[in-house]
Amino acid sequence: MDHLINNITESLKNEGIQNSLINGQFGIEKENVRVDYKGGMARTPHPGILGDKFHHPFITTDFSESQVEMITPPLQSVAEVHGFLETLQDVISENLVDELLWPQSAPPLLPQEEEIPIAKFGEKGIHKEKYREELAHKYGKERQMLSGIHFNFSLTSRLERKLKKAIKWNGDLEKFRETIYLKMVRNFMRHRWMLIWLFGESPVSDPSLKMKSLKTGEKTSMGCSNAISIRNSSVGYRNKEEYFVDFNSLDRYFSSLSKLIESGDILSGDELYLPIRLKFNEDSKQISHLEVRILDLDPFEKSGVSKNRLYFTHLFLLYSLFKEEKDAYQDKDQKIAAKNQDLVSCSGMNPDLLLMSTDGNSTGCDQMLNDLFADIKKFMADCKLNENEEYSSALSEVKGLIDNPNERSSFKVKEKVLEEGFINFHLNKAKQHKEESEMSGFRFHGFEDLELSSQLLMKAALRRGVEFNILDRSENFISLTQGDKMEYVMQATRTSLDNYSSVLMMENKLVTKKILEASSVRVPCGLDYQNAKQARSDFDLFEGKPIVVKPKSTNFGLGITILKENNNQEVYKRAVDIAFEHDGSILIEEFISGREFRFFVINDQVTGILHRVPANVKGDGEKSIRELVEIKNLDPLRGRGYRTPLEKIRLEEAEEMFLKEQGFNFESVLKKDQIVYLRENSNISTGGDSIDYTDDIHQSYKDIAIQSSKALDVKITGLDMMIEDVTVPATKDNYAIIEMNFNPAIHIHCYPYIGKNRQLNEKILDSLGF
Amino acid sequence: MDHLINNITESLKNEGIQNSLINGQFGIEKENVRVDYKGGMARTPHPGILGDKFHHPFITTDFSESQVEMITPPLQSVAEVHGFLETLQDVISENLVDELLWPQSAPPLLPQEEEIPIAKFGEKGIHKEKYREELAHKYGKERQMLSGIHFNFSLTSRLERKLKKAIKWNGDLEKFRETIYLKMVRNFMRHRWMLIWLFGESPVSDPSLKMKSLKTGEKTSMGCSNAISIRNSSVGYRNKEEYFVDFNSLDRYFSSLSKLIESGDILSGDELYLPIRLKFNEDSKQISHLEVRILDLDPFEKSGVSKNRLYFTHLFLLYSLFKEEKDAYQDKDQKIAAKNQDLVSCSGMNPDLLLMSTDGNSTGCDQMLNDLFADIKKFMADCKLNENEEYSSALSEVKGLIDNPNERSSFKVKEKVLEEGFINFHLNKAKQHKEESEMSGFRFHGFEDLELSSQLLMKAALRRGVEFNILDRSENFISLTQGDKMEYVMQATRTSLDNYSSVLMMENKLVTKKILEASSVRVPCGLDYQNAKQARSDFDLFEGKPIVVKPKSTNFGLGITILKENNNQEVYKRAVDIAFEHDGSILIEEFISGREFRFFVINDQVTGILHRVPANVKGDGEKSIRELVEIKNLDPLRGRGYRTPLEKIRLEEAEEMFLKEQGFNFESVLKKDQIVYLRENSNISTGGDSIDYTDDIHQSYKDIAIQSSKALDVKITGLDMMIEDVTVPATKDNYAIIEMNFNPAIHIHCYPYIGKNRQLNEKILDSLGF
């Protein structure tokens, strides 16, 4: 025990340290057994659509081929890591055909042991298979099918440096790190029983489950009547015996671990099934992070773990860091801690449970819980973490469980299993989770502040095992890496595929027009003026033709006049003057009639075509406009503030006015199939509908879109085309290109109101060569 | 004569037409004989540095290998076309070694006829050589060495359409065009004598010049005592006889031309040496433009012709378009006009010259001049061109010549030749023009509103024969074309060489830093904050280190604090607060000492390194600071408002204050070699000096610049590096990259205050593959 470290609590008064506490590096690994719709372990191989499991950084298999393992990268907040895990869950669920992810740590219906398939990794991964075979032999395959959650954690280097400075540590940073991480581990080990008591969630298993006894080698049923966590219990995912390693210094740790390996008790550190592990950088022997292995799957959560559970676990680790230690952590202390784990796992539902206090005496579990909770609460107040909404809400939830032990998830699971049966209950949960996953297909949880297009691209990357790194979050600037390949992408569609000058051409409407014109693509013809006198005196050139008079750059359509006849010189001059009020440069262009379509082009292929329609409802002869809007707004694709592919239709002043012009109000009841528009503009942001036309537009228009892209040597563009009639082939004058966008959104083509998901996120990754 | 067209004058009341009159398409072709420094025709081949003359669109040879021909593309104003010509003149002059451009239409010292080399165009151009040999045989090589200026002109299609509409012409546009262009030609032919009288400028030739008489075949001396333009005279650059073609309709024109060719009088239309020619599109028989061939070279103008002369010629053509014709243009009228040309060319200096009026009677030249001038002046008033400064000033100049005929250039040339001798006078002028060309090397005349970098790129393009087209002038957006190759460039350095994501990386300072850091390039290390509380509480991380606290985006350095010690927490916190007052996101970075250098990288090569020094003067023990500044400001590289590579040093409040701090004022006299700075900042815009360091920096820094460019996969960048000592190799911490710019200026590396021209404009064209 280092004296300086032990008195680290003092540093909590330091405001800089307080402000840095919630930061850290967080990671999660989670296993779920794949099951069929009857609750039986899936016999199919790991799905190919989820990539090469040997190289995939996020999705692989654990012990068994049927046991999916999800791995998040290290992320900077609990919210992010939880979101990443949830997104992994979504992506895997969406891509499983006729299968579900088993939401319980205790296994589903298993076949005969010999039919439980060990994960296959091909020739390159033959060592992995060998290792699994040894485990199967030693522990029985059934035991290896127990699934759980590992929570990885390290402090930020900023906090480490601040702590080191605050306590005036004179040694080097690495030594300081070892010291504080070992302290965290020791305190965690001492108090770990609390996490199991709170969050243990494998109280029962299916009656059919038999596991090899590590003592006798016989297959036996599992469970004790008051169990909270079979997985964490002595019959669970544990070594043959309780092996102890010495956490009082790094040297002692390595030497105790070596002894266990030399004696043949375990093959490597990986086989030491501790509730928490020290993890090291592969190339150095420096501590990289801690791995908390104690959390069971939570069947009530789609992702298998609630955010609050993670917040509390993080808090528990911080508490372990700052909590003063009275003594070194000796063998006797290890034994007491292990005993308490077993007691809580196996009998944690017993309200009168007795545990062992640090001095070896039996003490009421409730008393010990309350004492420990009070100490954690005090710690939170000391470091002002109680001012943080997430952490204090997590603490309140825990307080509720301590006050009402029957509210614990373990009780709820047991109750539900009694009602519905072990398999049925969990199967229903699994189905529910899958539905939820499918409904939030457009979302990357934990990263909802990014644009939907970026979220979708990241989701596609995640499925393929392309790692991403957010370089500038507010700019949606990410890097994508797979093997040696690296790409930088901004806003999903601004990539290295395009050359700079093509983008500059698109950015400049005048230049776009000139180049398209030179390539015989129709654009609204017209002239630009810097001089009002010249523009005013050009009435003769436009007389009798439908024209648009507009400022060269315009926001929200200000200063634009459409003259459909243009036979009054005075009106024309006024329109010119209005445009010049908004810009020193104006355009007078022919007015193009028809409907507007967005063509999305990638690498000379039209990959999506979309048309937007103003906010509208369709009557059923019974409901009012207000009711029809409310029903339409229930669609999970509709939300508020650009967080969803479509926006909810509003019932506000603009809509009221527009309806009034048509003789309606919000309470008007529409006839069956009567369509009423609530807005003139077709923007998605005001509740408009997006309709996929990719397969419904004459090929000739697609050819024009490609020809245009080639003219500017553009690889990715969102091209806006006016078309008179999409079923009639393009002629010289029944269409026109209005604009080519250099950063077109992709989500609108993936989640349209009507039509197919055109998977533009996948197509962009394809094009980038991933 | 078409009645509608003849009464076209009415349309001049139309404001739209008035406003469109000065627009048009203008082009110039000009010949100059290359001479040595003794005034002898150069015997060297056309310089290779000026490109392949067979394909070069702007620079080729005319009849003789020694006769450079400059060709501007069609441009939209007289100012542009004059500027382009002047720039051609500059580029050719700069690239001639030990040779000059002969500034007079009458030839320099010629060798024996057989030694005058016919232009060589290689095998592909063998037909051109053949044609020239026939001309040599027919006209004598000496006559072909008479050089001149051709002015090409067409109306804008906008004006043509407006005119057609105004006079209610019902036929098709092409027929309308034929009619008005033929009218222009006829009126021009009638009155062309006036242009010769005004602008004729080959009054004498060198006494040694003898030309083959077209009548007798003998070699004879040229000239008559009152000649104005030998070149336009009957012994000048003319056919054997006066051949007439019929300009009353296009059909008649072609048939009269065919007759001349069939009779063997001329080989093709090209051999018909008319004062004005109709020109046609090659593929159709549509009129493209008119070619005025009457202008002599003006030895007093570097470019060979003044802008005013071009403005008046344009005005003369417009007058010809609108001037009512009393009769058709018959043979007798042609003869009168030809006679007048001969009279003016040969005797135009005679104050009592008589010409022939349209009715065939002799009339005083002065009377005819005054009448014609009055009519042109009235036309100008009718169409309000008198409100245009350029055109009315051109008219005033002409008025001055009519009032004082001895002021004409022809008189001045004759006078100077009398004083200095024919060869000497023109040789001196040629030398003076060459010096002027060299002083404006950074400028593309007529396009001075573009950035200097773009002007330089265009100049390099011009030399190589790469055609350019300005797509958006205010944006400096141009296209470059040569053969099948086309490139689009904005601001000289934003090109297709770079991919979009590399540019986005450079645009984002945070991302640039992250990527460079990951590539082990040193950048100022630091942290970014969105939260003031967090930043304020991070004093411990930066205590005792030199830092810069700055808003993430900053203009003019606002909100930046440099803390060189950083040992006062309160001062630190204040600096944080100040930065947050300017942006919601701030950076705290280590402060990097040393001097800043701009590295220009193209395609993984450092092509220029520049260091900037604040405005300064160096004493001589006698002069005051004010005088020293005035002398330094005489440098033609220094100007005002970014139109020159350097800016003049100002003597304003900021300079006064800064000098005062050092104990000086503007009148202080500095000791010999004493250097005093007038500004703290080193910006060029406030009179700073730019110093080329390309060859004076240790290679290791260049390697770092290249490594950085590769890290971002950037092809063109201006990289700003802080370096402690440029002579010491780079170590881990004696430099840092501050910024990488995606649109760096090139002119600063081409025209530094001290150092070589690094020719970045040429290197960019090289990289683009031209």
Automatic annotation (TrEMBL), chains A, B:
Its cofactor is Mn(2+); Mg(2+). Keywords: ATP-binding, Glutathione biosynthesis, Ligase, Magnesium, Manganese, Metal-binding, Multifunctional enzyme, Nucleotide-binding. SUPFAM superfamilies: Glutamine synthetase/guanido kinase (SSF55931), Glutathione synthetase ATP-binding domain-like (SSF56059). It catalyses: L-cysteine + L-glutamate + ATP = gamma-L-glutamyl-L-cysteine + ADP + phosphate + H(+). One of its GO terms (molecular function) is glutamate-cysteine ligase activity. The keyword Ligase applies. The keyword Manganese applies. InterPro entries: ATP-grasp, Dala_Dala_lig_C, Gln_synth/guanido_kin_cat_dom, Glu_cys_ligase, Glut_biosynth, Glut_cys_ligase, GshAB_ATP-grasp. Residues 513-769 form the ATP-grasp domain. It holds the Pfam family Glu_cys_ligase. Gene3D superfamilies: 3.30.590.20, ATP-grasp fold, B domain. Signal peptide: none annotated. Its EC number is 6.3.2.2. Pathway: Sulfur metabolism; glutathione biosynthesis; glutathione from L-cysteine and L-glutamate: step 1/2. It is an enzyme of class 6 (ligase). Belongs to the glutamate--cysteine ligase type 1 family. Type 1 subfamily. This is Glutamate--cysteine ligase. It comes from Paralabilibaculum antarcticum. The gene is gshAB.
